[in-house]
Amino acid sequence: MGLIELDGVERDFVVHRRVGRVRRHRDVVRAVDGVSFTVEAGEMVGYIGPNGAGKSTTIKMLTGILVPTAGSVRVAGLDPQRSRTELAMRIGVVFGQRNQLWWDLPLRDSFELLRHMYRVPADLHRRRLAEFVELLDLGSFLDTPVRQLSLGQKMRGEITAALLHGPSILYLDEPTIGLDVVSKSRAREFLARVNRELGVTVVLTTHDLSDVERLCSRLMVIDHGRVVYDGTVDDLKARHGQYRTLVVDLEGPAEPLVVDGAEVVRVDGPRQWLRFHRDRTTAAQLIAAIASTTAVVDLTIEEPLIEDVIAGVYVGGAPDRT
Amino acid sequence: MVETHGGPTVAEQAVIWRRLVGARIRADWQYRTSFITFMVSQFVAGFLDIVAIVILFSNVDRLAGWSVAEVALLYGTSNLSFALSDVFVSEAEFAAHHIRAGSFDRFLLRPVGPLLLLCGQEFALRRAGKVVQSVLVLAVALTQVPVDWDLPKAAMVVTMVAVGFVIFGGLWVLTSSIAFWAVEAREVANSVTYGGNFVTHYPLEIFSGWLRRLVTVVPLAFVSYQPTLWVLGRRDPHGSPAWFAFAGPLVALATVLVARAVWFSGIRHYRSTGS
């Protein structure tokens, strides 16, 4: 049995729309439309989709904040609908844009409050906190009021706050939003360790696909309330991102190259971009073909950007479940 | 959709509440000027009520047969009840704020009831200014009213303050629950609580019949008017039964049960509709 199991989950919202001066029209909008998936313990899953696709609604149903309209949800063997408070002990949640720390107090105080809320024994708490302080390098700002912390420091505090009670599942909603490159890679590194070393199952929603590429073995794409892709990142690229691009620098500006199996998609002075289908030709064949007719100064191969691949999935729209 | 109980015990809840309140006070204390200013202003503003009563009595000797000391007893007990509910329970009102801001979800992610979290997290010690002022008025009134104090009467005063606190607390929760259905209903809610507090300052005889009947149902009449009648040895000129004076604890219990049911149904509604 999976740690998280969704079966045919639907969620409707009633939206009132004004028609005329006073009359309101009642519309039912289906935010989540028949989502089924299973997440096994220890997995790290990226749950992505455009705004309004149903990501947050799904997460809310997984935590018990929101009750599904139809279908069944089971998390850690519990029904979130009935056992919300019991489930709360076993999950940790980080909302990137919402603060769960006490704004005017030092991190240490927030952690102490959470310890009481989750009834964590003092010595266990001390041990865990020491671990996180070391892992996330919190020592230097543990006693600074949260409002004075940088965004990156705050995020490290948030993640710690979500994990101090030892949950088996961690939900992250846009955890790296607004972080600079260094803080981002730090947060990712830490999340990877949490997953690997503590065995915490992680479900991550994000707009930053590099988060998913770096962290998640599994990726679920949701669009219009349906799961349109469920599989590995590599698989997705293989299936939807067959095109790669060869970038060549010639000795000088030239006419677009004519090569079998590739087409020039962009020219900028001496630099040309050639798109090719990786099943029909290989980069090596292409390079050989070009080099036999033209002098090449430099070249690089661009992998498909995951953004483009996923945009292709949204547009394609055809449910593609594996 | 009954919540199964894996939750904290009452003792643990008390610890959580105390910790939350402690944190809140420490946080507020960082802005101590505004903290102290507000506290003093609450204290002073409270006396304006008294000034109003005194001005009233400088024009008439008696108000519906009540002397100024007797009204002060009524005012002191009911206002103390209200001030205590304002300090400890009025935080429930912040539900509306959190629902609108989308931060109410946060409360549902904790292994503790959202009402306890709200009351702890939004606790404002500065509201205690009104408690101090009410105690002062009550202390003066107790020495001035023409009552032969004995144990039952003293016990009644203590009980009525406690009962009033519970009734007002129930009304805070009840009216705050409206936010789960209509986020903008704060004014309606406040007219019941703050308005209710005002009504209980005065002998109910001075109000018109419909308001009197309304507060008997709502049930502000039980906050201090009925027990005060008994303490002062008065009869209700409108002939409510004498046992009304002793009905307070039951009325308080009923208020709490109703408030509790409405609050939980509000949370169920929130979880089934989203914000």
Describe the structure.
The complex is a heterodimer of chains A (322) and B (275). Chain A has 322 residues and is of the alpha/beta class. Chain A contains 10 helices and 14 strands. In chain A, the strands form 3 sheets. A 7-stranded mixed β-sheet of chain A has the order 5-6-7-3-8-9-14, sandwiched between helices. In chain A, strands 11-12-10-13 form a 4-stranded antiparallel β-sheet, covered by helices on one side. Chain A starts with a strand and ends with a strand. Chain B is mainly α and 275 residues long. Chain B has one domain. Chain B contains 12 helices and no strands. Chain B has helices at residues 10-29, 32-59, 68-88, 94-101, 104-108, 114-121, 129-144, 151-177, 186-199, 209-217, 225-231, 248-273. The radius of gyration of chain B is 20 Å and the shape is globular. Mean pLDDT of chain B is 87; it is low at 1-5. The chains are: A alpha/beta (322), B mainly alpha (275). The interface between A and B is medium-sized, with 34 and 32 residues.
